[in-house]
């Protein structure tokens, strides 16, 4: 049975944590009293909120006593619960307003990795309005007005919890894959390019043997050939492929089959090396191949072959670099290396770059780190307000790796301009260490729990 996402309820004593716990689990499991400090140990229960299922943890009131005292040990239990949770509900008493202890708890929560929702409890009537407004100063997203005693604000709580619960469910689905080290297996490295770029010669030089037939004739290689090899003790699966010409020039049935086999090899690979002939420079077909690799979500490296016989290397390199940045604007800064399959120049650097690129392609960012970056990115460049209606971006999560894929939750995200999506994707690459690997961003709006009623 899949593990339920976990929600921890935290706050200072007597703000209504146990009342909220009982409300969510639908039973009076936790003792409730006007006296502070009734709850000491963590209490857990299965909760359901308008069809949303999760595990909820009731914690002791957060106090600042010495760690060796009973309140200090209770605080340690609370801290452990928050660290293990997928999201924390930070309760304040909206009628009492924000207290110094609330501010201290907020500072502690901001320093952690667990996403936080501020719940302004006891907000029924007008008496709690000022406290809800004060809660904005705690430094989190918009506080949710709520009444645990009367059950008011359940739909708003559902809306706030939904992206976190969905994100935790996505991550749970990925756990089976993530538990295995994604870099433990052999590096699946495909060599692609136009005919006669030197792909088979490159593979032979890696292997230090004439494993592949080579020659001046274009199109010698027809099938994608997979070869297991080791580079300095690390396993590599080299895949030599048939040259890819522009579709309009492909008339022979066998060449069409070879091209389809090459595209299948790209799907199988983790990292793809697009080999260019430095004596011919970058051509339109090279950009089409590169775009195809990126569309498939593979990590891409550009290698300029025959560098030992290239004319005016500095100008050539700069020209290729500029043309790539302009022709593949969706992934600027692709690794560009110079090699010679004939002499072996630059091949060690190429393999090292392939391992580094796979590491970036397989990288997962913690939810806390991702959302700290996300909050700053939105603060520096808020989304537009088409028609005067604000687009509200709530939460960003990494749904999977290989390629890195992210889900952005918010309202009216269908109206988010493509330029803003590119702004976020480029920032993720630049600031979070993904480099030039393809990054996918999916937009998702919260479901309306009453939409079908």
TrEMBL record:
Binding site for GTP 2: 193-200, 240-244, 305-308
Entry keyword set: GTP-binding, Hydrolase, Nucleotide-binding, Repeat, Ribosome biogenesis
PROSITE patterns the UniProt entry points to: G_ENGA (PS51712)
Database matches in Pfam families: KH_dom-like, MMR_HSR1
Domain EngA-type G as annotated: residue spans: 5-169, 187-362
Binding site for GTP 1: 11-18, 58-62, 121-124
Gene3D superfamilies found in the cross-reference section: 3.30.300.20, P-loop containing nucleotide triphosphate hydrolases (3.40.50.300)
GO molecular function, a single term: hydrolase activity
Keyword Nucleotidyltransferase: no
Binding partners and assembly: Associates with the 50S ribosomal subunit.
General function of this protein: GTPase that plays an essential role in the late steps of ribosome biogenesis.
UniProt similarity note: Belongs to the TRAFAC class TrmE-Era-EngA-EngB-Septin-like GTPase superfamily. EngA (Der) GTPase family.
UniProt name for this protein: GTPase Der
Species this protein is from: Sphingomonas naphthae
